[in-house]
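User: My collaborator and I are trying to settle a disagreement about how two of our proteins should look. Neither of us wants to argue from intuition anymore, so we agreed to look at predicted structures for both before our next call. Could you fold the first one, then the second, and keep them clearly separated?

Assistant: That sounds like a sensible way to settle it. I'll keep them separate. The first protein:
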Amino acid sequence: MYRATKVRVEGSFAPEGALAIQSRRSATIRELLSSDMKEHSSATHRGSRPLSPALIGPAWGLLGVAAFSLTVPLTRIAVADGGMSPLFVACARAVVATALAATALVITRQRLPRGGQWIRLGIVAAGVVAGFPLLTTFALTTTSAGHSAVVIALLPAATAVLAVLRGDERPPRAFWFTAAAGATAAVGFAVFRGDGFAGPSWADLLLFGAVVAAACGYAEGGLLSRELGPWQTISWALVLSAPAMITLSGVAIAVQPPAGSPAQWASFAYLGVVSMFLGFLAWYRGLARGPMAQVSQIQLVQPVLTLSWAALLLHESLTWSTALGALAVIACAALAVRTRLAQTTPGLEAGSGPDSGPARYDPAESAGRMESAPARACR
């Protein structure tokens, strides 16, 4: 009698009765929790609203630019007094970033790039992993961070020009006029100093080369991040360049063993972890979410932030020539980017052009892979 009553109470007397009761109990608990959250939880309070989808891309882009704005001043600190050679600072920081990137790729079990994507990754690696760090680091051994920031302010216009050429766009003449005006302003700032015409120095030539290299990497990386994913793009580029960067780092250590102050090593750590990896993660994610032209305009904030950091960390004085040169270059770059933005069709900016291809990056799919890998490891 007792057993029959127990069986009926537990629900196992009917087929699948225990499962039915358990399901009803779970539904009741979920209903109670849901009603309680609606009334009391701040997560569902009427006053809190999620970030607008239109602002997600620019927000990630701003985060990346804020991370990049410290690169020039901290590079200047790292190579000061000759404790660390510029070759070591430029290459070894890529090795540090490669270790982080390779770990992330292995843990999340990312698919290998296919075919021509490796060639495009080579362009990204040559531009932002090797070219820009090497050229700017050697330039900063003989010039100030503020001067470098003004020349590098040409980067948004250069990126827009290469994106136009890469996408086979036909912008109006105003775009080419403003881009040329920005380049002229940057060259004029480089060759004219406070006491008149001085001609471009080797540091200026290196900085202009760095602008071209970074623009190539940004333009190609922005397109490729829509196929591979934002952090996957810079990660694969770092892995692809690892053999060369490790070899050059070994040569630099053999020629001049690095020796620096705690501030210099802290600057080097930031360059390797943030400037070479986490900053690109945010920047390429912003470009992938788009619109790309709108997000690229956020680069215009970077020279202003860099000049501020140079004054704060390096105590560099902001001269009138530097301020006027920065304003001229930034204004021309802003007009160039805005002219292209007004001309670009929404469909192309959304990535529906021929370069988008069938293998578009799906943030939800990538997030699923990142979450499922640790879960599989736990099991």
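The second protein, kept apart from the first:
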Amino acid sequence: MLSTKYFKLFLLFILIFKNFVSAQESHVDLYEVDPVGFLSVVIFAHIFVPLGFIGVLFMLIRIYFRWSLKRKSLSMALRVPFYLSILDFGFLVFQAITDGYLAINHTAMSGTTCKRYATVTVAFTLFHRLIIAGISVITYLRVCRNKVCDTGRYDWKLFLPVAVLSIFIAVSAYDTYGPVIYWCAALPNTIAIPISSICMTIIVLSICSFCYIQTIRAIRDIKKQQSSVAIVSGVVGNKSTTHSPIDSVEIKVSKKVMGYILVFILQWVPAIPYDICQFFGRAGAWVYCMVIISINMGPIGNAIFYVMNEGWSRYGSEINTSAYDSVTDKSSTKVDSKNSTIPNYDDNMKFIDIENGSFDIEKN
């Protein structure tokens, strides 16, 4: 049968992979050293990694349905969860390989294989963190500072510098990588390694937290101002005036984006205790279990937020995000003078008057 054929190919892949690293593998049997810790790490990994895959596949399938509805570039409200799903999928693949090897051999990889594997993993981890930090800053600048960042087609201006920086940092620390009990990472042989890791984690989480708090506060203030204006002014015909940097559509999209950033913050907070334990010598099995659970709860949390934002429907909510797309798209990010026409904006929103630092949107 077809399923039996694929199962045999899977077993063959495992055997090839095992023989490839057998000459370099460590001979320390972690099950004999700490059976409870070893089983805890393996069991938690085999429970939460599949759950993470389910969350990622759920989001990718739903986003595909949303894209197939109009077959055009994804809005910011969908691009962010799409990027997160791709990054989380990469993490899950790395974890599946690491945990599968650990369960079969009762030890982590070693030698050159471990160093190369750790280099790729560290580069991917840095890329993931810096991308989310960049999205946080972009959202903060748009909502709180009324500045639109042009990230180029397919957001290459965001991805390319981050990718180059991540690869450079990971490769420059190649000699410090090796087996760290249950997986391959930077060895805490010197005080600089754990301190650098702690500082990187704290800086990224601090940036994301600051942007999250300030953006949510700004959104609440804008909504209060809009409510006050609506109560005092009312609605006259088809015209209305709102004194806020962004309109109601952008507020909804920004809230969606910040929800995913909140999940990222919660996802990586347990990395701090792990780095601290590495700084003082050796992390216990419970620390590894906590990291495994938190990282894999990221895709699950993102899937939950996606349902909260877009609903259970295959094609999601009917909220029109074209206004947000227009001001974040390259063709509509510059306003040079008063009463300027903004290309690709909604047909019923033609002009923007800049007065006293606020946008007055006139609807025809």
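Some points you might bring to the call about the second protein. The mean pLDDT is 75. The domain at 29-331 is CATH 1.20.1070.10 (Rhopdopsin 7-helix transmembrane proteins).
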